[in-house]
Amino acid sequence: MSAASEPGGGGDRTRAVIVDDSRFMRTLIRSLLEEGGIEVVGEAKDGSAALETVREHDPDVVTMDIEMPTMNGLEAVDAIMDGHPTPVLMLSAHAEEDADVTFEALDRGAVDFVTKPGGEVTSSMPRVKKELVEKVESAARVDLSANARAATRERRGDAGGAGASGATVGSEAGSSATNAASETRPSSTGQSGTTDRPAPDTGAASTAEADSGRTYPDVGTLVVGASTGGPNVVERVLAGLPRAANLRVLVVQHMPEGFTSRFATRLDERSAYAVREAKSGERIEAGEARVAPGGTHLLATGDRSGRLKLELTDTEPIHGVRPAIDLTMASAVETVSDSLCGILLTGMGRDGVDGMERIDRGGGHTIAQDEATSAIFGMPRRAIETGCVDVVAPAEEIAENALRYFAEE
């Protein structure tokens, strides 16, 4: 798929295929998308029909239901990625049991997900339409062409190597980022369309080996922000952090309410850190990580005896999102008394740019995901353009670069 500009940039309309076994739901989704300026070029009632429809219409994005007869959404993602790679946006019911399946879809190659709209017409429908249209526009701008390259790098052992350095931002790197004309960039997940995942401790093991001889302060604070294409990259970053680094980690991933708890559980299973969804008023210490709950801003409000106090707030969205990366990073700058590092990963828009600037002005360290491994190079590119980013690194080298900052020489 060719590079595309941001929504509203004057380019061609985004073309979508809707896959759902419910005719009513297909009609509702079509109506919401068309009202939002999306061109619906085809529909399918199950996964087996979806592949044929995708081949026929070659859309920019596919919206995919999960539970369908004949071939379900997970199997359909596999078939599409194998037969006609196209960005897939999963439509997931707002339920805990659907969260696991939704994350499995991301593992198989889906680029993002959104909560499935309810069948009844309510006052919240304008908000539902706005979210759905924005997610479709964002998903359509994910370029899947790097999946094979990422898998090749994995096989060659290039990923997560101890000698990974990352690129320090200078005038040449900043110029390259400024001249980027598009936010559409390859996915960094490297998923091959199967249920097999790279062993989560592989990156951590590589980092641990590289960490031999390093010493760390008693506590350091890391804030990680991500949007579209981010969940698998966030997992990779946390998997690369050894417990010995003594970090307190705050994760802000743009994600609907009801899914961040399961996301935290996945991170906990895949890292050496104790990861949970954040609770208002709690304190975290070295070796712990917290994920901002969907629909709620996460703030750091106190730092005492190596423990960071957290608060949640439901104030207005920032940049149209809640939780907002900017608010968490800004609060960390005001609160954290030890070493502070901000990481900004893949995503469309500019959430996190102001936060990264604040961390930089406050004397902290800033790392942005590079263009080649970002599913969408919007947020990192904008941060790089400000000149506030210390290091630009591919997904597999971000943890290592953060560890270098925190390590005592």
UniProtKB/TrEMBL annotation:
* Bias (Low complexity) ranges: 165-177
Family matches, as CDD domains: CheB_Rec (cd16432), REC_CheB-like (cd17541)
Alphabetized, the UniProt keywords read: Chemotaxis, Cytoplasm, Hydrolase, Methyltransferase, Phosphoprotein, Transferase
InterPro entries reported for this sequence: CheB-like, CheB_C, CheY-like_superfamily, Sig_transdc_resp-reg_Me-estase, Sig_transdc_resp-reg_receiver
The active site consists of: 227, 254, 351
Residue ranges of domain Response regulatory in the record: 15-131
Please give a single GO biological process term from the UniProt record.
Answer: methylation
**Catalytic reactions on record:** L-glutaminyl-[protein] + H2O = L-glutamyl-[protein] + NH4(+); [protein]-L-glutamate 5-O-methyl ester + H2O = L-glutamyl-[protein] + methanol + H(+)
Is-annotated flag, keyword rRNA-binding?
no
HAMAP family (UniProt xref): CheB_chemtxs
Protein family per UniProt: Belongs to the CheB family.
Instruction: Tell me the function of this protein.
Output: Involved in chemotaxis. Part of a chemotaxis signal transduction system that modulates chemotaxis in response to various stimuli. Catalyzes the demethylation of specific methylglutamate residues introduced into the chemoreceptors (methyl-accepting chemotaxis proteins or MCP) by CheR. Also mediates the irreversible deamidation of specific glutamine residues to glutamic acid.
What UniProt notes about the protein's domains is:
Contains a C-terminal catalytic domain, and an N-terminal region which modulates catalytic activity.
Q: What is this protein called?
A: Protein-glutamate methylesterase/protein-glutamine glutaminase
Question: What is the originating organism of this protein?
Answer: Halobellus limi
Q: Which gene encodes it?
A: cheB
